[in-house]
User: What shape does this take?
Amino acid sequence: METRKEKLGSNHPDTLISIANLASTYRNQGRWEEAEKLEVEVMETSKEKLGSDHPDTLISIANLASTFWNQGRWEEAEKLDMEVMETSKERLGSDHPSTLTSMANLASTYRNQETRKEKLRSDHPDTLISMANLASTYRNQGRWEEAEKLEVEVIETSKEKLGSDHPDTLNSMANLASTYRNQGR
Assistant: This one.
């Protein structure tokens, strides 16, 4: 890594890969502070040099979220996971493997939060979106019952908070219909 920094410069893509690899090694060893320091460096440099929506930048953000996740720093992990998911959806589409992975990461963060029930039961629009995204992940994995349960909850809350004719409510209904269709119902 130091050789690459010296020969190529701190901002060179190959140098960033070396730094990210070392951070990953630290993360796998449970050396959280060392991993975090390097991951922040890679993330900030990637944002500056490649842009916030570049795939390599999104990977660096997800890596930092993983380090936070492993430390039980759920809110910090959630914020980064949400950023990766939203940017991936915009840039790559909802069905892209990277987007689906980011949805699963966010779902995993929610699952491990002590306040999961409160967060998932909330009627905040962002929470409804996250629940719908998690349901989509389940649907794409063929986990029909889990998808259906979340989709029904999203529909009920959307109807209550937004109304039956709201586009988000209608979209949620279409998602549930897709789940039923995939089950042959």
